[in-house]
Amino acid sequence: MRTLPSHRSLIRRRRAEERAVKAALLFFALVSVLTTLGIIYVLFQETVLFFREVSFAQFFLDTRWTPLFVSQRFGIWPLVNGTVLVAAGAMVVALPLGLLAAIYMSEYASERVRRVLKPFLEILAGIPTVVYGYFALTFITPILRSIFPQTQVFNAASAAIAMGFMILPMVASLSEDALYAVPNSVREAAYALGATRWEVATQVVVPAALSGIAAAFILAVSRAIGETMIVAIAAGQQPKLTLNPLESIETMTAYIVQVSLGDTPHQSLAYKTIFAVGMMLFVMTLGMNVASYLLTRRFREVYE
Amino acid sequence: MTTDDGRRTTNHGRRTTDDRPQTTNYGRQAVRAGWGVAPTFEPNLPRRKVMGMVWEGVALLAILLGIAMLLTLLVKVFLDGLPYLRPQLFTEFPSRFPDKAGLRSALQGSIWLMVLTALLSFPLGVGAGIYLEEFAPKNALTRFIEINVANLAGVPSIIYGLLGLGLFVRGLGLGRSLLAGVLTMMLVILPVIIVSTREALRAVPASIREAALALGASRWEMVRDHVLVYSMGGILTGMILALSRAIGETAPLITIGALTYIAFDLRGPLDIFTVLPIQIFNWVSMPQEAFHRLAAAGIIVLLALLLTMNALAIWLRNRLQRRW
């Protein structure tokens, strides 16, 4: 009779395999941590080199950003101004429309209507940003120019409108999740007190889902600040301090693209500026993502 | 096409739960926000109902406005691009003359990029998803990894480009090669794959796991022979959606220095390269109207590619995904 391998050695082999697999999988999961560390390391390293040549005062107190010119100035605010201007414009479009869309989807639409409308919003979210950039430049800008003749070819408003529609589905979908999580008993209680459907939606359900909606809004702002291609195509390359959306501006992301497209030698000061700008961008978006995360964790209502 | 911001962890029909139970008090939260606090009562019921109906119309209008925008965009792109949608578009390299310019090198770059990114990111992303969902003990390290993945999903893609520039292009000395682009793109879509893998695994009921374990399977055997088999449809769907994001992503590749003017065939992963969206961006940036139309033709190709991938994802989901 053939002898089988001993029970004990089988178990030992299986345990070894189990441990090896688990270690490998843990390593895969840790790649994401390594990515974060990599981002921080690369940005930090180049930013430190940047600040060896440019003082904090020049970066944070100057009002002009001209590192690619002969007379170099390194004031970050014009880029921040451009970024915030476009993001604010995008929010004017995306937040009200997104929230209204979410209320309709969650509180009014029948299952059949939802099934028809939802795919459209998903397609809207899946269109590459370079396509929105094309649309902004060749469609929205001419319309703006026919209404406001003083509009420049590249302007903040056009990019902001396109970006608003790009972000709308994200606001709608995250807000809808928040509204949907409010249990029906809450709605029914309000109906029993004689509230109409719209009153239930806006005075009961929306306040109950407020933390989730606020988290969605913050994520949307963070997304708008980091968005690149639309502004690189449609918003221009003129960093300046202005609140006029019809003027050409430059955002932080568009500046990084502008430098990347040119032949900037490695080690040059201009090359290091993109990492300093990237660091600023990373810190801003990270702050908002963390705020959004804490908001959902801290204030999320839990219903039995 | 699906939104892929990786943040979307709650599903309809599934109640959200939290490991820290809290008291139910939505009223206090509303008061804190100063919203809905003792609204003045409007006794005129018909008027309230009319107001409600008006606002319902406004809400529906918000969605229809989004859809109208989408349709306008599609029609505009098609009308602009159709004249240039001809065989040369696929067989010619880029050129200074719009009539001779084509997408040949960009198409090669996009397809190579997609295939290589898929090969690298599949084991990594799915492996990480399996670890977090099936193996990870509930401890500080696991929580840290989870927060980290959620946060990475929210990092702007251009930041990944800076990472790729510092790490792969300069650090590893890969230059502006396809390989540097693939590694960068892999990091961009990893969080998306991890999140969708976890959702697919979570959809497999516990009874399957318990049955396997009861028959003496080890944890890995249980995952490999049962859970993975049943969740493969969902995992592949998530994978395709992640890749369809990768194929439209432009900013990180521009940042690592992918070029726009490539007039030779791509031979290997160490060659310099370009991709569809970068070529489109380049044409949009030209002042001549003809190049804008060429860009529109390129957009049609890109959208067709995306549509095919999404159709594939939906087909896979319907075919392989199982309802419990």
Overview of the molecule:
The complex is a heterodimer of chains A (304) and B (324). With 304 residues, chain A is mostly helical. Chain A has 2 domains: 7-53; 77-299, MetI-like (MetI-like fold), CATH 1.10.3720. Chain A contains 12 helices and no strands. Chain A has helices at residues 7-53, 56-61, 77-108, 111-126, 129-147, 156-180, 184-192, 197-208, 210-226, 229-234, 252-261, 269-299. In chain A, α3 crosses α6 (156-180), α3 packs across α9 (210-226) and α5 (129-147) crosses α6 (156-180). The longest helix of chain A is centred in the N-terminal third of the chain and has 47 residues, at 7-53. The mean pLDDT of chain A is 90. Chain B is mainly α and 324 residues long. Helix content of chain B is 68%, strand content 0%. Chain B has helices at residues 26-32, 45-81, 87-91, 104-135, 140-153, 157-171, 178-202, 206-214, 219-248, 251-255, 276-285, 289-320. In chain B, α4 (104-135) crosses α11 (276-285) and α6 (157-171) packs across α7. The longest helix of chain B is centred in the first third of the chain and has 37 residues, at 45-81. Chain B is globular, with a radius of gyration of 25 Å. Residues 1-24 of chain B have low confidence and may be disordered.
